[in-house]
Amino acid sequence: MTVLAPANEAELAEAVADAAAARSPLEIRGGGTRAALGRPVQAEKTLSTAGLSGISLYEPGALTLVVKAGTPVAEVEAALGAQGQMLPFEPMDHRALLGTEGEPTIGGAVACGVSGPRRIQAGACRDSMLGVRFVNGRGEVIKSGGRVMKNVTGYDLPKLICGSYGTLGVISEISFKVLPKPEAEATLVCDGMDAGGAVEALARAMGSPFGITGAAHDGQAALVRIEGLAGSVTYRTGQLQNLLGAQWRVLEGTESAGRWRAVRDVTALTGEIGGGGAIWRLSVKPSDGPAAVAAIQKNLEAEAVYDWAGGLVWLRVPEAGDAGAGIVRAEIAARGGHATLIRAADPTRAGVEVFQPEPAPLARIARGLRAKFDPEGILNPGKMG
Q1: Residue 232 is part of which domain span?
Q2: How far apart are CA 259 and CA 48, in angstroms?
Q3: What dihedral angle (degrees, nearest 10) is formed by the CA atoms of 228, 230, 236, 238?
Q4: Which of 78, 191, 203, 279 has a Cα at 20 to 30 A from 35?
């Protein structure tokens, strides 16, 4: 497959404009670590954003970062960490779950709308975005938002682009608000708790005044994270332990951080696609998560990991047939949630609705938006259905 590798935004715009003129579909890639997300793309050319790399502007005092789309997430986190700061949304690394290689890029994290455990406290990826620059399907450079936290001008295109999987435009640069990195963290752990009991306990923790920044059940134990100034973390951990019970033990420092990296990257469900099964990402009301999984397990072998206090469920099922799509979607729809197929072999992803089917009015709006942003349908065609 031909790979187009523009080195800057002007070359990126030219490459897209040429493809539009020739009606030649493009598969958009950053580091390639999330290429298996969505439906397979049928294209003869790959457009790589890896050459659009580097931090354009970083003002620690203003909590503002402007970074090019092809910049590795690790490079961004290292630069922020040197100043005692961080990306608020704790972006997931899909490599272990998808069995991919390469380096995750910040543009890929935005394009796929990736958010980790801290979402319950700091918001999603889109909530940290101040502005975005991207090239639409005509080869035009579009700028929306700005570089300051009080920017309110124009349409909120950053939130539209976030999670659009490259189907509306090719991201060239993103502006973020960042946050101070916590001085300390601690995790309360209760081993051997089943999912139902864990979600009830997580709800009690979330309802407390102790500033929870992570609440999960990793398949083996219930986990609650507290972050902040060292003295505050110690006090709040003790208070929360009194609330939840003495059976909750405390992890600190690197041991705590490692446990949350595992939750973030869903390492409990990793494995080769052929032997590891399909992975679904379910979004439900937190209290409905265990019941939904229990209902699915009556008809389908399944393992689950719960994040966001139970509102995000990662489900591993056998990949045979439709990878459980009929059963999973029926149970989730009955609870007002939605389900996305995250991991499966290409034939399965090509034959199953990967993303939650949209109601007809929303589907018409989505088609209309794609027609405006990408009239020739050349950007990741078929990726989202």
Answers
A1: 184-264
A2: 33
A3: 150
A4: 78
